[in-house]
Design brief:
72% helix, Growth Hormone, Chain: A, mainly alpha, 2% strand, 9 helices, 2 strands, two-stranded antiparallel sheet
Length: 231
């Protein structure tokens, strides 16, 4: 893509077009939901639901911000934008390890331990980004991707726990609504980067992680005799 130019960006749609028929045949068809199920208890779920949106929204904002500003930071330090884009590839690619690993660890340690561990690891490694340069930035970003993406399976399950009457909607709150909120807030981070510089604006990621800590305790809600966040 770097050599062909943006006019060939349509090439990126080819993998989707090739895999779409396979996906339509392979994805299992779920039975339709009954319309006579238990109504959602909005008042009961308001506090943990807002905590979930706040935590997941802040994490989504940090994800989008890092994906946006890492290549710019690399370019401002004298590197090429193509090499900087590989930082995003590394960040998102190792995120697969984070999602799979956190799912396996939840079965052994519980949601709460893994959520806190992933969040604290995110704070530690994202705080090192402004100080690291050169080739060492790649392994740092790789570890950071594992930590950041490690929270996504947890919040997805917690969303299903909170909205136990409609787990599918709980998944949508944890992913769709939170990701949309993070995307809407990203321009504010961009304005800050214009004023203070991208390198200094990277500290925003650490601040967002610290702020997200305030909402973890609000995710503890009863579900099937257990407590969401502690299973």
């Amino acid at each position: 893509m770097a050599t062909m130019g943006l006019k060939f960006i349509w090439v990126m749609a080819i993998p989707l077009a090739l895999t779409w028929p396979w996906m339509t045949r392979s994805v299992p068809k779920l039975p339709p939901q009954t319309r006579h199920g238990n109504p959602i208890k909005w008042r009961k779920h308001l506090k943990p639901g807002l905590a979930l949106i706040a935590f997941s929204g802040l994490r989504a904002l940090m994800l989008y911000g890092l994906s946006t500003f890492l290549p710019i930071l690399w370019h401002q330090r004298g590197g090429s934008l193509v090499a900087g884009a590989s930082l995003v590839t590394t960040f998102v690619g190792t995120g697969v390890i984070g999602t799979l690993g956190s799912g396996a660890m939840m079965d052994r340690l519980g949601k709460r331990v893994v959520l806190w561990g992933s969040s604290i690891a995110t704070l530690i490694f994202v705080s090192l980004v402004p100080f690291v340069s050169g080739i060492w930035l790649w392994p740092l970003v790789a570890i950071l991707g594992i930590a950041v993406f490690g929270t996504f399976p947890i919040t997805l399950l917690i969303g299903q726990d909170i909205f136990s009457e409609n787990p599918a909607m709980g998944s949508g709150v944890a992913l769709g609504l939170a990701n949309g909120l993070g995307a809407l807030l990203l321009p504010l981070w961009g304005l800050l980067a214009d004023k203070v510089g991208v390198s200094h604006a990277m500290w925003t990621a650490a601040g967002l992680t610290v702020l997200s800590f305030l909402f973890i305790s609000g995710l503890r809600v009863p579900y099937s005799g257990h407590t969401a966040g502690e299973q």
